[in-house]
Amino acid sequence: MSGDLRELYQQLVFDHYKRPRNQHVLGQATHHAEGHNPLCGDEVTVWIDVADGIVRDVAFEGGGCAIATASASLMTEAIKGRPVADVERIFEAFHRMVTGKDGGTHAGLGKLEVLAGVREFPLRVKCATLAWHTLHAALERDSKPVITE
Which fold has domain 3-147? Predict the structure, then answer.
């Protein structure tokens, strides 16, 4: 990755950390789940409002490092208004990207691609995926807290 592109990606991550999108309690949620990353101290609750198989709204609350917060913010933007089936595909593609199991071909993830670099830092992968695993648990209506260890 070129230095200019890396800097642009870092700026986008920092922007989503400093001004997270959709960070609030979602009162009309149909699904929710909680997650925790004990290694970093990140905590997140994800709320989703699903109707007719579409994610009508999504929000998160919690505290954590820049990667965890930016990832949750970017996630909410990426899935709002999407069919649940698409959300699951995006979850899988994102997970393959940050774990390096996509062969470097993560086209189609849009702004989420800014988090591809976390694959170089295995401990940071847990930060980047916490909100996503929590989202998945919410969609599955799994009431156990998500723990990334």
Answer: Sufe protein. Chain: A (3.90.1010)
